[in-house]
Design brief:
With 90 residues, the chain is α+β, with helices and mostly antiparallel strands. It has one domain. It contains 2 helices and 5 strands; from the N terminus they run αβαββββ. Strand 3 (61-70) and strand 4 (73-80) form a beta hairpin. It is globular.
Length: 90
Amino acid sequence: MRLPLIACLVLTSTTAFAEPAATVVGCDNLVTLRRLTVQNPEGSDIPPEFSGCRAVPADRVGEVEKRSMIGDVPYECRSVKEASCLWIRP
């Protein structure tokens, strides 16, 4: 009798406490990403004026296609399944 109850509790607790899928912020061009980073350095929300930027699930981000250094900060344009290349926030 206790075994089904324990199994039910384990299954419920693992789904209730599952972490949300990690997302990254990516933009179509590096200039827009830099502007977004200056305006909103820590947040993952994207203001409407940054229409070329979007949140992408981290598991959909692929290999590096382009790299750029601005100051001491490296930026990478990575392949994404629904777009050719997005500049990803470092």
